[in-house]
Structures are given as structure tokens and as C-alpha cells.
Amino acid sequence: MLRVLKTYYSSILLLLSGVILMSCAGTTTPMYTEPVRPGTVSKAHESLRTLPEPTEKIVAAVYRFRDQTGQYKPADQIASWSTAVTQGATSILIKSMEDSGWFTPIERESISNLLNERQIIQNIRQQHSGPEGPQALPPLLFAGVVLEGGIIGYDTNVITGGFGARYLGTGGAAQYRKDEVTVYLRAVSTQSGRILKTVHTTKSIISQKLDSGVFRFIDANRLLEAEAGYTYNEPPVMAVTEAIDEALKMLILEGIEDGVWSARNPQEVVEFRERFDYEKALEEQMQRDYFGFIAHRNLRQGFYLSTNLGINSHIGNYANPDFNSGLTVQAEYFLLPSLSLSAGLERTRISAGSAYSAPVNSADLKLNYFVTPQYPLSPFLSAGIGSFSKRTLLYRHSWDTISDGMFPFIGFEGGFDYKIDHRFGVRIGAGYRYLLKDGLDGVSLGQYNDQHWGINVGFVFKPVWSSTN
Asked: Which domains are assigned to the chain?
């Protein structure tokens, strides 16, 4: 009876708590608000502000530096009229011109408002002027250079990807997306109309999402459900700001190089290029592909050594085989940037509980094909031949005894190879081997021969004597 009453009162309390929470849902407020702060500057802002001083500041006008993409923010179920990129790029460019120290910006985007205000001032002075007449307004500055261009490209989902795993209702996932915004900027002479210089920059916009959760029954009547996650979206307006800052810096430096304008101290220009690796940035610009990746022609070449740790298992005549660890050493030589030949030695164990357990060695020779050899991350596929050995090659064994302990196989492997630089890398893969001779587990039965599979993670490095870079 007491247990029934406890259950009854617990249900009533739970119901009342739910009603109270629902009634308060419309009046909840944030626990705190963030104070206002100065605007965030881009990563290219520091180098823009530290440009060498010009011989003379350039009076420049910007009429309208606008969004020319015409794209709207994507929406799944509703019509959205919000644009994908900022419509205030003119203000961003004028701020960059001020911060660079090379330009004297003059107002041209709202020139009609400026002229109207000057007309009002002139009329008031005319009405209240004395016998001497109204005092004339000073003349407007005229621009020697007009900066034109705009945001000419916004590409979404240039690269997308992710990974995740879930087991018995518990797991997590990660997603990744890359967009790109492209800015073109040109300087035009107001005296001749000649285009003095044109530059363009591209900035990536990264979005990442990490989430995890649990959804499982603790017992027959209790369900545990929990979720946690984190999303990072790079602000598009900051991407546009950084692209404009970098474009203006490139316009100034390339204009100095072409003699369009000059710096007060040419030596400071040389030091600035060295300090901010400007020459390296120009070289990388020529190497980037349409996806923003830098292609390295000689990233995979020469001789490499690697060591791998793996978890593998055996498919044979025993039920419920165990998972065992293994160690592999491998030597690899690249015949072509996309094709390599490797030879490896492995030490592991095959077992099935208390029924069977034995250490085994293996040696293999594989041909490896890399799908994208010019990029740091490349999928690879491998095929080759090899043999397991249950005996050591010591002099006291005859050849017949040794051959009885040899189990040849054909093997296949696939995975990903990531090069940290030209000398070091990391590799993860999954392999499968089909034995041409049965009995690796000590039993020769059934229609199919024994099989072996596993996953491995390894460290790849190029010896100093083999390095050519």
C-alpha cells in the first residue's frame, strides 16, 4: 500500500512540475547579455596597418563596392530574402583604405546627400549674409584614383564531409562544410580611365558541427537519453572583411612593384615582404586549385619507412575468434607520385578463447595506388601477395618442415594517407587477406580457406639520406 501511495504522489509531482515549466516557458529570459565591444578586426588587418608609408597619400573615391553574386541565404522550408553576403562592403573597403595609411578616401557613395547638404548650407548663408555676400564653401576634393570591383562570387558547399560512429544507442558525429567568397578590386585613373591594377582574393568560410548522444534502456523500464553538441560557423562578414583587407594590401604592393605609386622608403617594402612571407603567399596562390588546396607535385616520392599498430582477427574453423594486436614494419618506394611498391613484416597472434592460440608472422609485397597524390590527404588502395608463417626460419628446420608452416595469401587494403610534410605522415587503413592454403588455425575443414582481417594506424617517415627536399 505504501509503495502505491509513493508512486501516486510521484506522478502528481511530476505532472505539476511539467505544468509549471510550461507556464514559465513564455517568460524565460537569458541569464545574462554580453556588453557591446569594439568591432573585430580580420587576420589580415595587422599587416595592412603596418604597410610602409607612401611618398604621398592617394586621394581615392569608392562609388559602390557591392555584392554582385545575387545570392540569398539557403532555407529549407521557408522563403528567405536575406542575402548570403553583406551589402555593406563599401563601408568595409573605406575603413580598410583609412587603416592602410595610403589613401585619403572621399565620399562618393552618398554624393547626392553631400551635395544636398552643401546646397542647404549655401542657401542659409545666402539668406543671412551681410553686404559682403555669402562666404563660399571650400571646393570638394576630386579623386585621382577610383577603386572599383565587388564581391563577385560566393560558392557554397565547395567541400563537405564528416564522420561518426554509434553503438547500441551511444555515439557521436562530426560534420564539416567549406564555402568560399571571392573579391575583385581594381584601381582606375580618373584622368585617363586606364585600369592601373587589378587583384583578387578568395577567403574560405568554415562551418563545423560536433555532436554526441546516448539513447538506450538502462533496464526494462528506464530510458537514458542525453545529447551534447557544438557548432562553429565562421561569420561571412569577417570573411568578406579579410578578403577586402588582403585585396587592398595586394593592390598597394603590386602597384609599388609596377611603378603605379611609390613608398617613401623602398627598403621598408622589402622588409615588409619578408616579414609577412608575401612572396610565399604569391607562390602558394599559383599552386592552389579550384578547391583552395595547395597541390604539391613532389609530396610523395622516394623511399619511406613506416611502423604500424593494428587490431586484427581470424576467420577460420573456430567460433568467436579473438581480436589481437599486431606490429608491422614496412619499407616503401614510390615508382610514381601515385604508385608505390612496399614490403612489410608483421608479428601478431591468432586465437579463439581457450580453444586455440598461436603467434604468427607474415610477410607481404604490395602495390599501392594513391588517388590524390598531390594533396596531403589521399585515399589509397593496395593489392599484393604474401605468406603467414607459424615457424621461424632457423637452421635446424628442414625445408619441408618450413614449407608446412607457410600459408600464402592474397591481400587487399584501403585507407587514408596524410602527409604532415614531405618527410612525415600518418596512415590509417583496413586490410583483408584470403589464404591460399587452409589450416592456419591448425584445422583444415570446410569449403573456404582461412581468412584474416584487421585495421591499423601507422607513422610514416622518410629517412634523412632519402630526403631530397
From this structure: 45-72+83-114+142-154+181-200+236-287 (3.40.50.10610), 302-466 (2.40.160.20)
